[in-house]
Amino acid sequence: xxxxxxxxxxxxxxxxxxxxxxxxxxxxxxxxxxxxxxxxxxxxxxxxxxxxxxxxxxxxxxxxxxxxxxxxxxxxxxxxx
Amino acid sequence: xxxxxxxxxxxxxxxxxxxxxxxxxxxxxxxxxxxxxxxxxxxxxxxxxxxxxxxxxxxxxxxxxxxxxxxxxxxxxxxxxxxxxxxxxxxxxxxxxxxxxxxxxxxxxxxxxxxxxxxxxxxxxxxxxxxxxxxxxxxxxxxxxxxxxxxxxxxxxxxxxxxxxxxxxxxxxxxxxxxxxxxxxxxxxxxxxxxxxxxxxxxxxxxxxxxxxxxxxxxxxxxxxxxxxxxxxxxxxxxxxxxxxxxxxxxxxxxxxxxxxxxxxxxxx
Lengths: 81, 269
Fold this sequence. Notes:
Chain B: GO terms for molecular function: oxidoreductase activity, acting on the aldehyde or oxo group of donors, iron-sulfur protein as acceptor; thiamine pyrophosphate binding. Chain B: InterPro entries: 2-oxoacid:Fd_oxidoreductase, THDP-binding, TPP_enzyme_TPP-bd. Chain B: It comes from Desulforamulus aeronauticus DSM 10349. Chain B: Keywords: Oxidoreductase. The structure holds two protein chains of two kinds. Chain A is α+β, with helices and mostly antiparallel strands. Chain A has a single domain, classed as Alpha-Beta Plaits (2-Layer Sandwich). Chain A is 17% helix and 20% strand. In chain A, strand 2 and strand 3 form a beta hairpin. The longest helix of chain A is centred in the middle third of the chain and has 5 residues. Chain B is α/β, with parallel strands linked by helices. Chain B has one domain: Thiamin diphosphate (ThDP)-binding fold, Pyr/PP domains (Rossmann fold). Chain B is globular and about 60 Å long. At the A-B interface, helix 2 and helix 3 of A face helix 2 and helix 10 of B.
């Protein structure tokens, strides 16, 4: 068996559904927990410390921001294919 | 909006009054996730709370809720459970509410082993009244009433509950949200008094006075200091000094109060 045969074909790995990070600005208190814990620097402080989805293309839908947000202001919305 | 928030919260009360970055919101999120997984009937579930930041929780939840007097959450919950043993009763209380003002109610609820799930939001301080030290403030930590550091030693709440007779005792932090949900589920399934101590962070009153940084820094502190019993065993005493064990700490079986009372009623006819 050669090495290349043991490599899993990437297309066979099930993918998480594509999601969109939505910030409810009316509930957000700008505490910065989501920004500090996002491993992919998707979120960032914008003008007036508004939490903005700065780099949505980097999101891997891990859900850490949604899980840690104490104000339930972040939702991962599943995008329709 | 998250479906569990939409279903179990009084949406007109949101956003809640807790400070930016407060851990209480994370605990409530884990609690409603646990209730969702347990498939509890919303009309047969009661939330009882006392006074303080943590006790505001009952007002945001869409169940039958009781916001009671200071320290008396467990006393009211005992009454609810005793009158209607078929209800699922959760007690949401803070560290000051539970261990200082309600200390006696706490040990006696544990002693009776009444079927309640008690979640203690331990933020180490009286946050709402301006940051006075509580019986759970660690030694040498600053509070507005201990500007040179706290002279007193804190309670070990979990050991107190075990000594008093609780049949399920666990501890976790707001960083370990998945574990928190699992512990609430396990605590609810226990037929008897269940205590889940949740180490939460108070960035405004405790963190600021003790220079603990941002809310995210305080969550990282919990991640680094809360460890499993197995990891704790392998540490030397020096390394153990600032660490605490998370997970199930005690689990046993004992006669449950309301069940025993029903038996007595049947016996007397």
